[in-house]
Amino acid sequence: MRVATKRGTTVFSNCGYANNNCYHKCFCSALLPPALDDKASNLATMSQKYKKDAHYLNLSSSYAKIAAIVVIVIVFLLFVRYWVF
Fold it and tell me: To bridge 13 with a disulfide, which of 2, 3, 26, 40 should be the other Cys (CB 3.0-4.6 Å)?
């Protein structure tokens, strides 16, 4: 599991050694260029925005479906009231 410690650095949290004393540094820490860090940050922001937009769209779609069902039920009840009886 990766944990970001500071800008441009990623450290694996399952390593039992401190970063300076670790003998397998190639697996414990990896330097990321700032451009990749910025892209990851932008991607996370876009993902949150997409999730919020999808939630709003699903909510409005649900409201539209409920309204359509209510209209159909009312029309059916009016049909039964005035044309059947």
Answer: 3
Tell me the per-residue pLDDT of 59-84, one tens digit each, with 9 for 90 and over.
999 999 999 999 999 999 999 999 87
Rounded distance, CA 61 to CA 54, Å? 10
For the record, the structure tokens of 72 come out as 């159909």
Task: Give whole-number Cα distances, 43 to 30, 65, 71, in Å.
Answer: 20, 32, 42
pLDDT over 70, % of the chain: 59
29 or 44: which carries more pLDDT confidence? 44
